[in-house]
Amino acid sequence: MQDENKQLSPTISTEQEQPLLRLHKVCKSFGAVQALYDVDLDVPAGCVTALAGDNGAGKTVLIKTISGIWQPDSGETIWEGKPVQIHSPKEAEQMGITTVYQDLALCDNLDIVQNMFLGREITRHRLLDEGSMELEAKQTLAELSVITVRSIRQSVASLSGGQRQAVAVGKAILEQSKLVVFDEPTAALGVSQTAVVLDLIKQLASRGVAVVVISHNMNDLLQVSDRIAVMHLGHLVVQGPASEFDLHNLVSLITTGKGSL
Fold this sequence. Notes:
Layout: H1 2-8, E1 21-30, E2 33-43, E3 48-52, H2 59-66, E4 74-79, E5 82-84, H3 89-95, E6 97-100, H4 112-116, E7 123-124, E8 127-128, H5 130-143, H6 161-174, E9 179-183, H7 191-206, E10 210-214, H8 218-224, E11 227-232, E12 235-241, H9 247-256
Parallel strand pairs: 3-10, 3-11, 6-9, 9-10
Antiparallel strand pairs: 1-2, 1-4, 4-5, 7-8, 11-12
Helix pairs in contact: 5-6, 6-7
């Protein structure tokens, strides 16, 4: 029993001395409901960190805490080696933290360029510089190997799920995000579109961006992640290299909080 407890203790990453983001003993409650218990989590730059857990495990609370929607009751948030307090999503975005939620928060009535530059439009002589924005958007999508978009001025409403995710990823790149959190990025996508999205996530990490992915699809998590952290009933029960997990022990950790690596 002692050995098992040792195996399941949340481990702090030794893959790099200073992760981009480190949470230390973060707690969060809502009235009498304790949502997070002393969560320790490392998120290194240039890696995909998968956050796994069943419904009610605390994943959403954790990412909303990282994103500045909720503030922790206690514990430390360390960003680029310095303790910080993130009071709002705007502050998180200014720091370089982008969260891509399942609904993507894209504007269906706008085209691809308008969505990618929404809120950070390029102007010249006080007028929108449409040419520069089109060029940057086109180059960014080309770098991501997005070749199925008919036109850069295509309405986002007409895009497939995979194409919409590509626009969201492209927007994060243009915003020079340092950390991108994906909430169920492959939900309701077909096999081919899922493959496209997983490839986009890997490409993002290859650029040195820290990526956190939340998904109920364990095969996707095992395929795309460099590191996996498992939550169970508000506790982060284990984290480590993805190579140390397989489907069997991942299911056990998610459903019972127990297992071995």
